[in-house]
Amino acid sequence: MTLPAAYSLRRRLLVSVLGASVAVWLASLGIVVGVAWHESSEMFDKALKESARLALVLGTELSGRGLLQPGAPTQRARDDDGDPLQLKIHYQLVAGDQVLRRAEEAPAQPFVRGFRKDGGHATVRVDGATWRVYVRRDPATGLQAQVGQPLDERLKLLEEMAEKLAWPALALALALAAFCWITIRRLLAPLERTAAAIAAKSPQDLSPVAGTAPQPRELQPIVDALNALLARLSDALAAERRFTADAAHELRTPLAALRMRVQLIERRQGASAPDLQALRADADRCTALVESLLALARLDPGHGALQRETVDLARLFDGLDRSAAQARGMAVQAVARAATLQAQPALLASALRNLLDNAVRYGRHGGQVAIGAEPLPGGGVRIAVRDDGPGVPPAQHPRLGERFFRVLGTGESGNGLGLSIVARIAALHGATLRFEDGLGGRGLAVVLDFPPA
């Protein structure tokens, strides 16, 4: 089953808010443009109406004086500087669908033919151009004043207005985007701080997650649920530790008594029967298992911070028990090229004892075991225990630190907890544990890389 791809909540919020804002902004701009077009059209229509009234009055006076001649053009209206006016309004004086007088750029044919009303607006198309026209008729003489304005002129005004508003509108949109980004980032900051607080917790830290101040109400249920989960997990781990420690502690006494009874029976008989020897070996194995379980219980989370000291590695190596190796005819070499290590002495000694015991137990008779410590380039220390025994298949290396895992076919007794204890001690010290080939490409090498103090 393919899980859906992760997405950014901040990006979705930003896109949603900006999208809605831009949509509202465009709608508002459309409304503003529509209102501006309507109001400007009304203003222009009123100007056409007033111009038609003036043109009709002047045309009537000229007609009464006999000065109105058909086809006589007039000059365009100009401002005080002699430049043409920005707003072009063209007039015609029409009698009987014939243009008697017109502006210079007005069409030679009437804007409107057959107009019978005293006045009114019309939108017509003359000579391939669209005009907005107002017609005013003198009922007494039938003379018409037709005043028109190209619609392109009105559109040009809107285009000029849009050009002037384009950069301010773009700056406003950018300012809105920046405001939304900053606001969303600040609003999501408590979520990021809470995530950072959770990420900063170590696997041993099951204390409640401290809430950020101020804490959003929407985030508080998540923090409360997480703290409740941590509390349940802490209780479960504490119960497991108590059970393991109590069970192991309670088993130590009867196992010790069982071993003593076996020894007493052997002394009474004067010789060790095979069954008694097997029984004593089983008791010893159970005792070792109980000791390992107790060690793991003490190393589990919840036992306080690790107290480190300066450990003399050469002295630590010299103090290791080599009797088991000597009994199997194995040579143990220990070389400490690194002088000291900041660690918990008892735990470090326990880890080395377990590693040496594993190397001797699963190595070959008459073989070799090499224990070494050398400085790392970054200031840390590497401790390695290598043997030249049969080794472990590389495919099983990742499972060597699991509890109760044992490699089959070795013919040796064990409980599968030795490397688990080593892995736990390494984790408490922040060290990395890995497995490699041993001496001469044979056997197994257990390598511990301790970070700088």
Structure write-up:
- With 453 residues, the chain is α+β, with helices and mostly antiparallel strands.
- Helix content is 49%, strand content 18%.
- A 6-stranded mixed sheet has the order 1-3-2-6-5-4.
- Strand 4 (119-126) and strand 5 form a beta hairpin.
- Helix 1 packs antiparallel against helix 2, helix 3 packs antiparallel against helix 4 (274-299) and helix 4 (274-299) runs parallel beside helix 8 (418-429).
Number of domains: 3
Main structural class = alpha+beta
Radius of gyration: 50 Å
- List the quaternary state of the chains: single chain
Element pattern in H and E: HEEEEEEHHHEHHEEHEEHEE
What characteristic shape results from the CA principal axes? rod-shaped
Count every beta strand, where a strand is a DSSP E run of 2 or more residues.
13
- Strand order in the sheet with the most strands: 1-3-2-6-5-4
Instruction: List unreliable stretches of 5+ residues.
Output: 69-80
Helix content: 40-55%
What's the pLDDT, averaged over the residues?
A: 79
Largest sheet: 6 strands, mixed
Quote the beta fraction: 15-25%
- End-to-end separation in angstroms reads 45 Å
* Count of discrete alpha- or pi-helical segments spanning 4 or more residues: 8
Secondary structure layout:
Layout: H1 9-64, E1 72-74, E2 90-95, E3 98-103, E4 119-126, E5 129-137, E6 144-150, H2 151-199, H3 220-269, H4 274-299, E7 309-312, H5 313-318, H6 323-327, E8 331-336, E9 340-343, H7 345-362, E10 368-375, E11 381-387, H8 418-429, E12 432-437, E13 444-450
Parallel strand pairs: 1-3, 8-10
Antiparallel strand pairs: 2-3, 2-6, 4-5, 5-6, 7-9, 10-11, 11-13, 12-13
Helix pairs in contact: 1-2, 3-4, 4-8, 7-8
